[in-house]
Structure formats: structure tokens, C-alpha cells
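Exercise 3.2. Students should predict the tertiary structure of the chain below and write it as C-alpha cells, then compare their answer with the key that follows.

Predict this chain's 3D structure.
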Amino acid sequence: MTFAVVNGSAFGVHLLLACAADALMARRVWGEATVGMLALLLQGSLLVWTAVRYDRHADERRASQGQVGC
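Answer key:
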């Protein structure tokens, strides 16, 4: 549940900013990199980080229940 809430919220904020603050998202911050591109990279990093945490907790739960498998 937390996985979906965190990543859904990040996506919602990114979508709102892309629609409402397009000038902010298009602002260049370093070379050709824009605020929007950096925000998207942060969102992707958040997705990977929460997925790893979710998988780790699922593995711990499976191990504590005595289940072994793929």
C-alpha cells in the first residue's frame, strides 16, 4: 500500500507541475538538463528505491512464514 501511495503521489505532483508550471519545468538548470528532466530522474529513483524496499519486505515475510521459492 505504501509503495502505491508514495509513487502515486510523486506522479501526481509531477503531472500537476508539468501541466500548471510548464515554464518552471522547462527551466534549464545545468547544460541541457531541465527541472522537469531532473524531477523525472528523481521520480524514477524513488520508484526503484521503493520497489527494492517492497521486495525486501516481501522476502522477509515469506521467510518468516517458512515459504521457500522463487
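Discussion points: Residues 41 and 67 are 36 Å apart (CA to CA). The first helix runs from residue 2 to 20.
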